[in-house]
Amino acid sequence: MNNKPGILKRTWSILKQPSAKYSLLALLVVGFFSGIIFWGGFNTAMEATNRLEFCIGCHEMRDNVYQEYKKTIHFANRTGVRAICSDCHVPKDWGHKMLRKMQASNEVWGALTGFVDTPEKFEAHRMELATHEWERMKASDSRECRNCHNFDAMSGDIQKQTIYNKHMKAKAEGGTCIDCHKGIAHHLPKEYKDPDEE
C-alpha cells in the first residue's frame, strides 16, 4: 500500500524528464500523426454507429420501431430521399452529437438488461421512451428535423393552403416541428392524448 505514492512519484518524474534519445521534432511528428490516426479511427467508429444497419442491429429496434418506420414517408416516398434513424435522432454538429452518443449508452445498457426485449415490454415503455425523445426534440427546437425541413423553404404554391397556413402560424408563434408531428415515423403510444383534441 505504501509503495503506490512512490511509484506514482517516480512515474511522474520520468514523464517530466526531457527525452535524451529522441528529438523534440521527432516526438512532435509522432504525436501529430498519432493524433490524426486516433481521430480518424474515433470519427470512423462514430460514423459507423450512425448507419441504419447499426441502429437495427438489436432486435428491439429491428422488430419494433424499424417495422413502423418502413411504412412511413421517411422510408419510401416519391422523391427517393430516405431519412434514417440517425438523421432524426443524432445531431450533426460535433458537440451535440457527442452528448447524444453519451446519452445513447443508456440504450446499450437497456439492450443488455432486456429493458424492452419483447414487444410487450416495448409497448409498456413506449410512452416513456417517446416522451423522452419528444422532450429532447422540443428542447433543441427540432434541430434534426430542420436539417431537412425549413419554414422559409416551404412554398404556399406547392403545399396545400391549409397546411401552409398552419406552418406559417407555427413559425410566427415560435412553434417547432415536434409540437404537431409526433408519431410521424413511429406509432403513437396508446396512452398519448392529442392536446388539440382535448
Description:
The chain has 198 residues and is mainly alpha-helical. It has a domain at 58-186. Helices cover 59% and strands 0% of the residues. It is built from nine helices and no strands. It has helices spanning 3-16, 24-48, 52-55, 59-69, 85-89, 94-113, 119-139, 161-172, 177-180. The N and C termini lie far apart (67 Å).
Can you tag this structure with a few keywords?
9 helices; 0% strand; mainly alpha; 198 residues
Topology overview:
Blueprint: H1 3-16, H2 24-48, H3 52-55, H4 59-69, H5 85-89, H6 94-113, H7 119-139, H8 161-172, H9 177-180
* Fraction in beta strands: under 5%
Helix and strand composition category: mainly alpha
The pLDDT mean sits at: 89
The beta-strand count equals 0
**Separation, N- and C-terminal Cα atoms:** 67 Å
Order of helices and strands: HHHHHHHHH
